[in-house]
Design goal:
The protein is α/β, with parallel strands linked by helices. The protein has 2 domains: 9-298, NagB/RpiA/CoA transferase-like (Rossmann fold); 418-480, no CATH class. The chain is 49% helix and 12% strand. It has 22 helices and 12 strands. The chain has a 6-stranded parallel beta sheet, with helices on both faces. The mean pLDDT is 92. Bound molecules: iron/sulfur cluster.
Length: 485
């Protein structure tokens, strides 16, 4: 397989579509997460009200981000937390490296963190001779496999149990087994030893509370407890958008995030960290450092449309709901942020010219917007980025003459009612040549194959035929029969 980059989404996606093992693994998404989320949502009285509240909190925070960040810093510093500001990924890596080197550590334990994935911290640590050990099971698996996460909540979702068993045989040296308890027990035994030895623990942050200077990190495996609590030094890498104004705001996000992400009412552990340990005999680190990461976030903040990208709480629900992601998985996006949110964040982080295919990696069906717990209008963002690509000519692609001609004809046909009616009538007659008997959902008939260039629509799926009657015809008939209300 060629190197997967965001600029190659088209080719990556085609390869992913031909991978039956990947499809088997991705079936877990629909079977587990989508259904579990639906059940978990129903345990909240006013889900829509909660989403609206969450978005209002995020909007308020983003409108006054500078003030809330300073308040967060001031209150956390009272508890002995030290802060470092990083303009970009390189600066953040440099800061973390200096902090690790200052403690003399040659190995660090890490808990799952998208911010550290975003800045490629593991590569920077390894290049400096420091061994990073991922301690979230999924992250550890993909670290063993030298891969990047394919999902922001379930990083190894693309792997089957059999592939993981083979990986353990190769990298850990155990006998091949399909027993999940043996596999997880092996990981636990190895990682516990690392926790006991580590001088430095590195984590991400789910929320930073301005009012109290508290950091909240959510998880299910207990490894974050150990990463942040056992080593003498805890370094947290936090995107500047992760701050929330009040402690009570956490109530809203704690109801939304686990339900949206994994279909849980609450994650198994919630670590609330407010300052370093107070007395020598207390548990917890002597030093806590928070690296506040910008890396393109200020730019997103500066535009009214792109600003909403910063409301994301990284729940992963939009990935699970996305028909494109469900088919191609995360690696096709060539970024640590895949799926619908990745398609909008990655081009903004990397620059449009390096990820110009991603805003087109969507059918704009709106499923992501429907499930997003903070009501991010991802289709609006995708269209905004597409418009920017077109305006900047970032793609440097001169459209083919045939394509330009086709769109001219299309525009001319569809801009006059008479031509539009004639066109749809003609298409209705012509489609008889290609419509087959059967059903797509509730629609009778389907089109399995169209001629090029329209054939791209039917290369991977059947298309529904044009409805036998127009809306106007149906409406007139309803009025005539007295059912028009
Ligand atoms: S965009 Fe919304 S649904 Fe997608 S990960 Fe972010 S918060 Fe979750």
């Amino acid at each position: 397989m060629h190197h997967l980059t965001s600029d190659n989404f088209d080719q990556n996606a085609r390869e992913a579509l031909r991978d039956p093992v990947l499809h088997g693994a991705l079936r877990n998404l629909a079977d587990n997460f989508v259904e579990r989320r639906r059940i978990a949502m129903s345990s909240v009285d006013d889900w829509e009200g909660l989403r609206t509240r969450a978005r209002a909190i995020k909007d308020e925070t983003l409108a006054h981000l500078d003030e809330y960040l300073l308040q967060f810093v001031e209150n956390a510093e009272k508890g002995g937390v030290k802060f470092h500001w990083a303009r970009d990924g390189a600066e953040a890596c440099r800061i973390v490296l200096e902090l690790v080197k200052a403690s003399g550590a040659e190995m660090v334990v890490k808990s799952k963190s998208m911010a550290t994935e975003e800045i490629h911290l593991n590569d920077a640590l390894e290049a400096a001779g420091i061994e990073p050990i991922e301690t979230d099971l999924g992250e550890w698996i993909i670290q063993l496999a030298h891969e990047i996460p394919s999902h922001i909540v379930v990083p190894a979702i693309h792997k089957t149990k059999g592939q993981i068993a083979d990986l353990f045989v190769e990298k850990v040296g155990i006998e091949k087994t399909g027993d999940v308890d043996v596999l997880t027990g092996t990981a636990r035994r190895i990682l516990r030893q690392k926790f006991a030895e580590a001088k430095v623990g590195i984590s991400g942050v789910n929320f930073g509370v301005a009012e109290t200077g508290t950091i909240l990190i959510l998880e299910n495996e207990g490894n974050i407890r150990m990463t942040t609590g056992l080593p003498q030094k805890h370094i947290a890498v936090m995107g500047i958008e992760k701050v929330v104004p009040r402690f009570t705001d956490l109530d809203v996000f704690l109801k939304l995030l686990p339900r949206s992400g994994t279909g849980q009412r609450l994650t198994a552990y919630q670590s609330l960290i407010t300052g370093v340990k107070k007395r020598p005999d207390d548990e917890g680190p002597d030093e806590i450092h928070v690296v506040l990461l910008d890396n393109g976030r200020s730019k997103m903040l500066s535009h009214p449309v792109t600003r909403q990208s910063l409301a994301c709480i990284r729940c992963g629900a939009c990935l699970n709901a996305c028909p494109v992601y469900q088919q191609v998985g995360g690696h096709a996006y060539g970024s640590v942020y895949p799926g619908p949110i990745g398609a909008v964040i990655t081009p903004q982080l990397m620059g449009l010219s390096k990820a110009k295919q991603l805003p087109y990696a969507s059918s704009l069906c709106g499923a992501c917007r429907e499930v997003c717990p903070v009501k991010i209008d991802i289709p609006e963002l995708l269209l905004h980025l597409r418009a920017e690509i077109a305006d900047n000519n970032a793609s440097n692609v001169k459209r083919k003459f045939s394509e330009r001609l086709a769109f001219k004809l299309y525009g001319s046909m569809w801009s006059r009612a008479g031509r539009y009616n004639f066109g749809t009538k003609a298409a209705r007659v012509m489609q008889k040549l290609v419509v087959r008997k059967g059903k797509i959902g509730k629609v009778s008939g389907f089109i399995a194959k169209l001629v090029p260039p329209l054939g791209a629509w039917t290369a991977w799926r059947d298309a529904p035929p044009i409805a036998p009657k127009t809306f106007r015809q149906q409406w007139r008939e309803k009025l005539r029969s007295g059912n028009g209300n």
